[in-house]
């Protein structure tokens, strides 16, 4: 094995087209705008108009920093977050974190599947629950039966679904001068509902499943290319790969935030402007757009929900599976035949099936999604603290420990998320 680690591989990938270098960061960023996220952004835009847009600008550098750090941990160490947590921290802490992640992801899957089925029903009519089941089966089939190299191309193409929300803006009238001013100089409110929405925005954009997914996909990319190795063992590959991680993540998170910005912009300019301020789901937002913005905007918004859901489901189920596999030392890879990684694929199937079944119960999906956000927030803070600590440990990162502005902004993101979670609990008690 060691004989293959030669500096000649340092140039591998350097001549590849830049678009081919986009992968984990792009997919992670796009998956952040899942149907549940779309519902949150729609609620925010409808309720507060342009005065909530500032949160998108603020979260961008924080998202970039924490996702680059998670990607670096995976690429440098050659292991996902769960495996690194198991190697360097008490297992009780790991098991608690993974359990919370699994619960939160399953609830998110339930909400996303329900939203996708409702969106198809809005467009073509028919039984929403049947569409929900069909979409769940389609997503599982893609994850289980298509090898990683081919599947990652499917996911990249699915990111194009998010452009539907850019297209919607061209179907409505936008006061761009007002948007520019209110994005940087908003009319802030200290009401409970406004602060709750701000907390929800942070919880939606900075989520634990994204950390686990991006780190694990860096490991998947290592496995998919025999010329590539963990940077601790092949430091001559660092320059190319660290640059790629930086550009991939910045573009992916920019993509995520631009789309979120456009969703808020659309609902602010249409629903909020027409005093439609109480939106509970992404499908409800699409339905409310129809009489205000027209059929074209309605169709784009609805179809975008389906496309983003198909992109987000494998990230939610996959991140839970990677976390469980890393915690319990199971074989794990989307490149492996399911028969060789039965327990890993079983978690993907279980999370999706339980999420599907959850959507058929009498439990209020909005309340379930709220508690999912609470769990995500509670889980995110300790994971971010542990990630920041791992990022400066030589036994994890070798000579590639995180330093300088990246380290500073990473801790800033952790602090902001901690304040957001504390604020969430205070608001729950008031």
UniProtKB/TrEMBL annotation:
Which keywords has UniProt assigned to this entry?
Membrane, Symport, Transmembrane, Transmembrane helix, Transport
Please tell me where this protein is predominantly located.
membrane
In the bilayer, the protein is annotated as: Multi-pass membrane protein
What is the protein's given name? Answer: NRAMP (Natural resistance-associated macrophage protein)-like metal ion transporter
What residue stretch is flagged as signal peptide?
A: none
Which species is this UniProt entry from?
Paraburkholderia eburnea
Which parts of the chain span the membrane according to its record?
Answer: 52-71, 92-110, 130-148, 160-181, 193-213, 251-272, 292-323, 344-363, 369-387, 408-429
Could you cite one Gene Ontology molecular function of this protein? symporter activity
Q: Say yes or no: keyword Lipid biosynthesis present.
A: no
Locations listed in the record: Membrane
One CC-aspect GO term: plasma membrane
* Pfam families tied to this protein: Nramp
Please list the GO biological process terms of this entry. Answer: iron ion transmembrane transport
Report the domain of life of the source organism.
Answer: Bacteria
